[in-house]
């Protein structure tokens, strides 16, 4: 992505703030998923759109300096996390992709529901972020010219 | 997770670990580490022997996909244990042998041992799993890993050819086998072998009986290189010799034998089963032994000899299936002797053929050639190899006092007994079977003699050998000596392993007979009877043929050492590639428009067919008046923007209009209180529009569609029919739901999502809890798409690459 309008300070400040909100909101969506609208898929897309904003507003080099991980790597990690959680079931003699949950009384937090669905969903979240960003960044960075 | 499951998975775990520790242990041969695995497993299985005594068995259950009745249930009985002992025992010896056979400085050892361990685990999985689908999965892993092992020296053209051939043939059989399993499932509703045995009567009465039986047998026959699928085995000899010794004599090819033995309680009793197996086995027996005589290559002889011996095992299993047809238990006990013979010969064959392959490997390794025309006079130079070969070949030829003699005599006993069996047609053909099997034995004797005398006797021509010929190092000799020792010991004390290993295996093939009655008493000398006379005849005729060998070795048929069935395979493969090239040329035009046309044509015709078949054309406008006015507004806007798309001449407005359609859809979702969907749709739309804009400058100029009037009208018709069909599906499903009072599946999720999964958001609970596998597979598709984009953009063809 090309560095568009470097002198537009207002735009950059505003969008920087927006990005913080977007990321925070995506985390909220991710964790709210079990009981409210949200979840790994939407959360991942929201995070991805925040990242895309970074790439749109700042130069690719700047963005690459801020976001220092490889998106295909994130994608693979996500797949592994989800698969790993799915394989817990057979080890305990249950079906594959059985999710476990229980309610725990933690100090300070009160009653909290802990479930294996959250790490599973986190894997999905990572895959979606990785997928969206890998596709976008690859296409954006492609410099070559196509002859029609 | 039981110890039995761990035993099956241990080789796979080791196969994952080996590549990581391989670089750390450059100075130590990787084989030494690998050897720990089969040795430990062998010890483990030896300690499990008491569990299977007297027909006992162990079942360890482990759920995998219970909704499809696919469970990783481990089942250990006498038959499974016999095979497990062979796989791990011979596996350990083969690994030991390979340490000296493969040079650690020159070879990619990590690859070799990874494939070998993969193969070992898959074989253990085949013989120890009770579930047919799990068995099938392991079955295909053996095909895959054996192809990898055959092509281990992948720079060699022959290796690749042999690997592809073995893979094509065995995988074809595997597919057929799976179809057979599915037919069995349709009839009985279970994939468990033991449950199938319990429902024997139901299967026998079913219309699927014959097709299922033939399909399963196709799998067994291709794997066990039965006629006419035998032609892959000689080409598989391109593999390193440890692989040949392991896969192509002791284990993989015996998977077919195992399958037939395992399925005997399910299918046996039908005369079709008896005749198909006996006839196929008999043809294989004769064809293999005759073809072996023609070979000039030591490993070629052994390959055809293996084919022939596998045929012999099949014949025995077929004869033994008569034990399910007798009227009384006593009658069945008489017929069961064939099964015993099969099991004993299976064990004997693994010992002598294993040692012979290793001996041939030593000759190849130390002289640099396997060509019979170059070899000769090795007796004085390689005395140990000579002795090993003598023992193995004598056993294979059926000469006392080795174990092959005992099982061969028992084979003759069965053949003599055949006409008294209770199977239709056996009275007329019994004599033919006897005669054919005897002729095969003569040829077996003959090729053993040729192999023996041509290699070790006669003049030693120094100029034939590219290297200094000497005896192999001690380490390479240990394994064949152990196997050869077993051949002698089991010949002199034939009952040594019978009560612990053989009898439980027989008992598990014949579960309907009382296990304590299935006793065997073997003896080296069993009196002067017809069998002994037949053996003497084999030796006499064999010797005569060998003496006259120079006279008839120039016959036309003797010159052709490649099997005639190879030409069928070659032609078939050529035809396959030309026809698929033709289809590709028709279908893959490189124009996106054509691809869409094909896909949509297929979808439309399939859906129309199912619509007509289920007779579900319904239109219902009963509930339309309840819809609020703004819904009409949204729908109208959606339609409007869709139609507007057709008239856009510029790309930017086009993208924006597509975005509008997407956002209107999201609005529709929001109206129907599907917040999750609405939010997903919104975000997806955003990201898509960004992507489209990014890819914008790569897109070609928009051009007016050209082409003939016919093509245009075809496209219009196709688009219209797609639209119409989608509309029909929508109205039909809506009308059917309201009129037919189907209970929506959402009821179940509404009731259970909080109690079973502890979540209030039903959509998300379905995604992560109830349909986790779906979700991960969908996400996998996304991942593949992302990787495909990466590949297409980053590794774009620059032209001129070799594709």
From TrEMBL, chain A:
<keyword id="KW-0472">Membrane</keyword>
<feature type="transmembrane region" description="Helical">
    <location>
        <begin position="38"/>
        <end position="58"/>
    </location>
</feature>
<feature type="domain" description="Na+/H+ antiporter MnhB subunit-related protein">
    <location>
        <begin position="12"/>
        <end position="133"/>
    </location>
</feature>
<feature type="transmembrane region" description="Helical">
    <location>
        <begin position="12"/>
        <end position="32"/>
    </location>
</feature>
<keyword id="KW-0812">Transmembrane</keyword>
<comment type="similarity">
    <text>Belongs to the CPA3 antiporters (TC 2.A.63) subunit B family.</text>
</comment>
<keyword id="KW-1003">Cell membrane</keyword>
<feature type="transmembrane region" description="Helical">
    <location>
        <begin position="70"/>
        <end position="92"/>
    </location>
</feature>
<feature type="transmembrane region" description="Helical">
    <location>
        <begin position="122"/>
        <end position="140"/>
    </location>
</feature>
<dbReference type="InterPro" id="IPR050622">
    <property type="entry name" value="CPA3_antiporter_subunitB"/>
</dbReference>
<dbReference type="Pfam" id="PF04039">
    <property type="entry name" value="MnhB"/>
</dbReference>
<protein>
    <submittedName>
        <fullName>MnhB domain-containing protein</fullName>
    </submittedName>
</protein>
<dbReference type="InterPro" id="IPR007182">
    <property type="entry name" value="MnhB"/>
</dbReference>
<keyword id="KW-1133">Transmembrane helix</keyword>
TrEMBL record, chain B:
<dbReference type="InterPro" id="IPR005663">
    <property type="entry name" value="MrpA/MnhA1/PhaAB"/>
</dbReference>
<feature type="domain" description="MrpA C-terminal/MbhD">
    <location>
        <begin position="637"/>
        <end position="701"/>
    </location>
</feature>
<feature type="transmembrane region" description="Helical">
    <location>
        <begin position="337"/>
        <end position="363"/>
    </location>
</feature>
<feature type="transmembrane region" description="Helical">
    <location>
        <begin position="166"/>
        <end position="185"/>
    </location>
</feature>
<feature type="domain" description="NADH:quinone oxidoreductase/Mrp antiporter transmembrane">
    <location>
        <begin position="129"/>
        <end position="426"/>
    </location>
</feature>
<feature type="transmembrane region" description="Helical">
    <location>
        <begin position="474"/>
        <end position="493"/>
    </location>
</feature>
<dbReference type="InterPro" id="IPR050616">
    <property type="entry name" value="CPA3_Na-H_Antiporter_A"/>
</dbReference>
<keyword id="KW-0812">Transmembrane</keyword>
<feature type="transmembrane region" description="Helical">
    <location>
        <begin position="243"/>
        <end position="261"/>
    </location>
</feature>
<keyword id="KW-0915">Sodium</keyword>
<feature type="transmembrane region" description="Helical">
    <location>
        <begin position="532"/>
        <end position="549"/>
    </location>
</feature>
<dbReference type="InterPro" id="IPR001516">
    <property type="entry name" value="Proton_antipo_N"/>
</dbReference>
<feature type="domain" description="NADH-Ubiquinone oxidoreductase (complex I) chain 5 N-terminal">
    <location>
        <begin position="65"/>
        <end position="113"/>
    </location>
</feature>
<keyword id="KW-0472">Membrane</keyword>
<feature type="transmembrane region" description="Helical">
    <location>
        <begin position="375"/>
        <end position="399"/>
    </location>
</feature>
<dbReference type="Pfam" id="PF00662">
    <property type="entry name" value="Proton_antipo_N"/>
</dbReference>
<feature type="transmembrane region" description="Helical">
    <location>
        <begin position="716"/>
        <end position="736"/>
    </location>
</feature>
<keyword id="KW-1003">Cell membrane</keyword>
<feature type="transmembrane region" description="Helical">
    <location>
        <begin position="6"/>
        <end position="24"/>
    </location>
</feature>
<keyword id="KW-0375">Hydrogen ion transport</keyword>
<feature type="transmembrane region" description="Helical">
    <location>
        <begin position="205"/>
        <end position="222"/>
    </location>
</feature>
<feature type="transmembrane region" description="Helical">
    <location>
        <begin position="109"/>
        <end position="127"/>
    </location>
</feature>
């Amino acid at each position: 992505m090309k560095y568009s309008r470097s002198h537009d300070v207002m735009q950059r400040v505003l969008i920087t703030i927006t990005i913080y909100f977007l990321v925070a909101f995506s985390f909220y969506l991710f964790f709210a998923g079990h009981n409210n609208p949200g979840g790994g898929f939407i959360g991942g897309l929201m995070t991805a759109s925040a990242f895309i904003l970074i790439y749109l507003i700042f130069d690719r080099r700047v963005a690459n300096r801020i976001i220092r991980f490889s998106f295909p790597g994130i994608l693979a990690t996500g797949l592994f996390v989800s698969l790993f959680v799915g394989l817990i079931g057979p080890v305990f003699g249950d079906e594959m992709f059985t999710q476990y949950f229980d309610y725990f009384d933690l100090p300070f937090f009160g009653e909290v529901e802990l479930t294996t669905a959250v790490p599973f969903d986190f894997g999905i979240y990572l895959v979606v972020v990785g997928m969206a960003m890998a596709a976008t960044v690859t296409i954006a960075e492609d410099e070559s010219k196509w002859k029609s | 997770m039981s110890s039995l499951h761990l035993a099956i998975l241990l080789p796979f775990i080791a196969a994952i670990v080996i590549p990581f520790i391989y670089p750390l242990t450059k100075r130590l041969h990787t084989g030494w580490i690998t050897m720990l695995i089969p040795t430990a497993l062998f010890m483990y299985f030896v300690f499990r022997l008491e569990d299977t005594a007297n027909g006992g068995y162990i079942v360890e259950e482990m759920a995998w996909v219970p909704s499809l009745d696919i469970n990783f249930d481990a089942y250990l009985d006498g038959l499974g244990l016999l095979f497990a002992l062979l796989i791990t025992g011979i596996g350990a010896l083969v690994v030991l042998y390979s340490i000296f056979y493969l040079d650690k400085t020159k070879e990619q050892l990590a690859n070799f041992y990874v494939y070998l361990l993969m193969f070992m685990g898959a074989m253990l999985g085949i013989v120890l799993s009770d579930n047919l689908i799990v068995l099938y999965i392991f079955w295909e892993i053996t095909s895959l890993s054996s192809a990898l092992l055959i092509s281990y020296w992948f720079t060699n053209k022959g290796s690749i050819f042999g690997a592809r051939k073995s893979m094509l043939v065995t995988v074809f059989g595997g597919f057929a086998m799976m179809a057979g399993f599915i037919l069995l499932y349709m009839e009985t509703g279970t994939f468990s072998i033991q449950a199938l045995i319990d429902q024997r009567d139901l299967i026998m009465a079913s219309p699927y009986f014959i097709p299922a039986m033939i399909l399963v047998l196709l799998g067994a026959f291709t794997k066990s290189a039965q006629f006419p699928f035998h032609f892959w085995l000689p080409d598989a000899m391109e593999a390193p010799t440890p692989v040949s010794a392991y896969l192509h004599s002791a284990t993989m090819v015996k998977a077919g034998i195992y399958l037939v033995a395992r399925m005997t309680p399910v299918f046996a009793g039908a005369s079709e089963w008896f005749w198909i197996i006996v006839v196929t086995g008999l043809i294989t027996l004769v064809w293999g032994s005759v073809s072996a005589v023609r070979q000039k290559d030591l490993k070629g002889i052994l390959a055809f000899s293996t084919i022939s011996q596998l045929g012999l095992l099949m014949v025995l299993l077929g004869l033994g299936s008569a034990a399910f047809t007798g009227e009384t238990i006593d009658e069945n006990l008489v017929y069961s002797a064939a099964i015993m013979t099969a099991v004993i010969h299976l064990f004997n064959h693994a010992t002598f053929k294993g040692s012979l392959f290793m001996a041939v490997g030593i000759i190849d390794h130390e002289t640099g050639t396997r060509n019979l025309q170059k070899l000769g006079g090795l007796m004085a130079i390689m005395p140990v190899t000579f002795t090993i070969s003598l023992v193995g070949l004598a056993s294979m030829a059926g000469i006392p006092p080795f174990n092959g003699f005992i099982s061969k005599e028992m084979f003759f006993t069965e053949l003599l007994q055949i006409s008294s069996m209770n199977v239709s047609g056996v009275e007329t053909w019994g004599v033919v079977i006897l005669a054919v099997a005897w002729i095969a034995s003569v040829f077996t004797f003959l090729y053993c003699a040729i192999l023996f005398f041509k290699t070790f006797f006669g003049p030693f021509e120094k100029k034939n050998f590219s290297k200094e010929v000497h005896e192999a190092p001690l380490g390479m000799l240990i394994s064949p000596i152990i196997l050869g020792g077993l051949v002698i010991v089991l010949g002199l004390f034939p009952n040594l392993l019978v009560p612990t290993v053989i009898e439980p295996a027989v008992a598990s093939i014949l579960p309907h007979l009382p296990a304590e009655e299935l006793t065997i008493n073997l003896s080296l000398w069993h009196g002067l009877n017809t069998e002994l006379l037949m053996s003497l005849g084999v030796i006499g005729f064999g010797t005569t043929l060998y003496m006259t060998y120079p006279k008839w070795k120039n016959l036309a048929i003797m010159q052709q050492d490649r099997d005639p069935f190879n030409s069928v395979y070659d032609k078939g493969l050529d035809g396959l590639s030309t026809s698929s090239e033709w289809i590709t040329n028709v279908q893959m035009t490189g124009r996106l428009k054509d691809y869409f046309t094909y896909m949509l044509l297929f979808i439309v015709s399939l859906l129309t067919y199912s619509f007509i078949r289920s007779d579900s054309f319904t239109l219902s406008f009963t509930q339309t008046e309840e819809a609020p006015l703004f819904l009409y507004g949204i729908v109208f806007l959606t339609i409007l923007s869709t139609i507007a798309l057709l008239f856009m001449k510029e790309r930017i407005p086009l993208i924006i209009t597509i975005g509008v359609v997407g956002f209107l859809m999201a609005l529709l979702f929001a109206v129907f209180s599907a917040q999750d969907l609405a939010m997903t749709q919104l975000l997806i739309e955003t990201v898509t529009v960004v992507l489209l804009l990014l890819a914008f400058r790569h897109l070609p100029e928009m051009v007016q569609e050209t082409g003939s009037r016919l093509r245009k009208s075809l496209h219009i018709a196709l688009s219209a029919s797609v639209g119409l069909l989608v509309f029909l599906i929508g109205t039909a499903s809506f009308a059917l739901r309201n009129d037919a009072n189907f209970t929506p599946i959402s009821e179940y999720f509404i009731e259970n999502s909080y109690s079973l999964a502890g979540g209030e958001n039903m959509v998300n609970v379905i995604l992560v809890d109830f349909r986790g596998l779906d979700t991960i597979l969908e996400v996998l598709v996304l991942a593949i798409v992302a990787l495909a984009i990466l590949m297409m953009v980053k590794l774009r063809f620059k032209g001129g690459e070799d594709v």
